[in-house]
Amino acid sequence: MMQGAIFDVDGTLLDSMSVWANIGADYLRFLGYEPRENLNETFKSMSLYQAACYYQSEYGVTLSTDEIIAGVNDRIGQFYRERAGLKPGVAGFLRQLREKGVKMCIATATGRPLVEAALERCGVLAYFSDIFTCFSVGHGKDEPVIYRTALEHLQTGRAKTIVFEDALYAARTAKRDNFVTAAVYDAYEKRQAELRAAADLYITDFTDWKSFWDFASQL
Known about the structure:
Structural class: alpha/beta
C-alpha cells in the first residue's frame, strides 16, 4: 500500500503555469511596451538577468536591470499571493491521502515563500510536512537529488512513494531513479503521449480517485 507522496507544485497542484509562460510579455506590457515577437519563447532559454538586459537593448526600457528583476519578481509574487488556484480535485485528493495515513511533502523549482503563500491561501499547506526547492537542495529536476532528499525526509519506502509531476523531463528524472511516478496532465506540457509513456500512472485530473486508489493499493 502507498506510504508517501512527493508533489510538484506548478502544473501539478496549482494551475499556475500561465504566469511563467506569459510573464515576459505581461511585464513588458505593464511597462507600456508592446512585444514585437513571441517574447515568452525568446526568454525560454534566458536567465532573468539576461531577460532584463534584453528589455533594455531591444525595447529601450530605461529601468536598471535590478529594477526590472524586482518588478518581474513582484508580479510573480502577487500572482501566488492573490490568484494562483488549485487544480480540480486537489483539495479532496489531499484530504483522502491524509485520511489514509500517507505522508506528503513538496518538491518544487519555485521559491518556498511563493509556494507557502499560495498553498496557505488555498487551505492545503498543512497537508505537507516540508517543502523542498531546487534552490534549497542545490540541484534542478534534471537530477534526482530533490526527490531523494524528500524521500529521506518522509522515511517511506521508495517503492511505496509516488512522485507526482506534470513536466516530462522531471517525470523522467524520477522514473530513472526508480521512483514510482504519477504523470499529471497540464496543458502547458505539450508532449502528453511521451509523458504518459514515461510514468507508471497518468492522471487527467484529481477527481478520478477510484483509478488512482486501484493503482496505489497494489504498491
